[in-house]
Amino acid sequence: MTSAPLAARLSIPSGPLFFPVTAYGPDGAVDLDAYRLHVRRGVEAGAAAVFACCGTGEFHALTPEEFETCVRAAVEATGGRVPVVAGAGYGTALAVRYARLAEDAGADGLLAMPPYLVKAGQEGLLRHYRELAAATLLPVIVYQRDNAVLTPATVVELARTEGIVGLKDGYGDLDLMQRTVSAVRSAGVEDFLYFNGLPTAELTQPAYRGLGVTLYSSAVFCFVPEIALACHTALRTGDEATVRRLVDGFYRPFVDLRDKGQGYAVSLVKAGVRLRGLDVGEVRPPLHEPAGDHLKQLAQLIERGQALLEEGM
């Protein structure tokens, strides 16, 4: 693991947070060579951290053995240059198992995915994340979305829990997020991290920045890192003209395309990686590949995004 604490390394992001896809070979097995190359290219392109085997990395589709192997490969590919955060999820017992596998593989932290299937109350969610944090030395970021939406009071309790360092918001309720940030601040917790975790987070990041949330996940970084990096730099420096140009010309059309298919937040990104020349295979069921005409639209959109960068030079 890297020597500096995860929260300190993420507090001032030097680049986008990279959520690599998981590569599969023609036989459907994990392709570690392609995966390492994908991760290494992302780090070299300017990623501030690697979030391995999370949503974009098809955490749901990996066996525990594959998960540990991929996290270890990500750690090897980064070579300590940036932190590696691994996913952990399902019920409490399995989440703990994944956490310990990630720790053994050399990860620097965990992204706690929502519990599987059940819609639990706040008391149960709080206990779940506390038990996960207590079971490992790795710092934990809690991922709020779907069946794991937290009240401000619950987040305050999480922020006071040793080992829990942040909240990633994939729910998108800005009113709730503002009240959460305010409640944690009023409770005297100043170093808690917040992340915009919505799909294609660049589209909503201008709004999240208004809440003081500067960290966000970037799946687009997987296949057009130059566009994601330009957007990140523009957001960080207050270059609103560039942000608007990229949002209007690339990110909004990409989201429109993404919304044309279930699961496209993953499968369309993976298709984009293949279009850029790295064969990472197809998604595993129950996800499915994008339709042919959608792939054509994606290729055109990539070209359009690159042209927007040239226009801004």
UniProtKB/TrEMBL annotation:
<keyword id="KW-0456">Lyase</keyword>
<comment type="pathway">
    <text>Carbohydrate acid metabolism; D-glucarate degradation; 2,5-dioxopentanoate from D-glucarate: step 2/2.</text>
</comment>
<dbReference type="InterPro" id="IPR013785">
    <property type="entry name" value="Aldolase_TIM"/>
</dbReference>
<dbReference type="Pfam" id="PF00701">
    <property type="entry name" value="DHDPS"/>
</dbReference>
<comment type="similarity">
    <text>Belongs to the DapA family.</text>
</comment>
<dbReference type="InterPro" id="IPR002220">
    <property type="entry name" value="DapA-like"/>
</dbReference>
<dbReference type="InterPro" id="IPR017655">
    <property type="entry name" value="Dehydro-deoxyglucarate_dehyd"/>
</dbReference>
<protein>
    <recommendedName>
        <fullName>Probable 5-dehydro-4-deoxyglucarate dehydratase</fullName>
        <ecNumber>4.2.1.41</ecNumber>
    </recommendedName>
</protein>
